[in-house]
Amino acid sequence: MNARVTAEIELQVDTEADVVLSIAAASGWPTRERLVVTGSAGDVAATEHEDHHGGRLHRAHLPVGSVRIFYEAETAAPTAPAPTDDLDSVRYLRPSRYVPFDALTTIPDIDATSDREVVARVPKWVFENLSYVSGSSGPADTAADTLTRGEGVCRDYAHVTIALLRAAGVPARLVSVYAPGLEPMDFHAVVEAFVDGRWEVVDATRLAPRTHYVRIATGRDAADTAFLTTLSGAVSLSSVEVSAVATEPFVTDDHTGTVLLK
Asked: Where do the H-state alpha helices sit in the chain?
């Protein structure tokens, strides 16, 4: 689907910092784009690295002071699915930092007899049993924490969905996306489940139509897809503003059918 997306991030850098940004649309999506990192002394260079799913990371060394990061793109869905390999069906069955499903003391009974039923019923269970509450979770919270608390935001919904899918033997991974129609607007976290030989996107929040999502990054959980990772130095986040607008007729989504994210 075609969309116009932007992200503007304001940082305060207390000591020189090495950071990685994951805000650019994945390889094959942008038809036009611009990324500008600006410090007090002018523009800062950002080096691009591409991962094996087509996610594009930008690494930059930030000077002390205020830093503004601005990204804009016009996007169109690629003709081919995101790159994958034979190990993904193993990689995304394993426990991970925010999805320690092997440590869950209680796993809900989803009452499914096939992978197809699991993929249909898990996000429905999460939607019906969690409450979406902005600010209710912290950056270190895992799927286990969210299940105990019973509330969270999109990353928490995604982590719980992934945990229950993996526990049922279905490979699942987290995808960060731009999501036209999302309210409130922000970076959004959804899930891809491997069923019938392909990766299908599910979103237990049901806050935006999956048909308009724009892929940013793909990984085991939020540790692999965070929009900003500080490798060294001291950085604090002042503000984040995200926009995503569909540039073609809007398609509604009841979140029951099959949707593939390129």
From this structure: 88-91, 115-129, 143-149, 154-167, 222-225
pLDDT band at 194 (very low <50, low <70, confident <90, very high): very high
The pLDDT confidence band at residue 145, using thresholds 50, 70 and 90, is very high
Closest CA to 236 of 7, 64, 38, 42: 64
**Would residue 258 count as lying in a domain?**
no
Tell whether pTM > 0.90.
Answer: yes
Residue holding tokens 């992978």? 115
Is residue 129 within 8 Å of 108, Cβ to Cβ? yes
- Domains: count for the chain: 1
Report the pLDDT value the prediction gives residue 83, as an integer from 0 to 100.
Answer: 86
Question: CATH number of the domain that 206 lies in?
Answer: 3.10.620.30
Distance CA 17, CA 115 (A): 44
Is 209 among the domain residues?
Answer: yes
CA angle, 181 as apex, 203 and 221 as ends, to 5°? 35
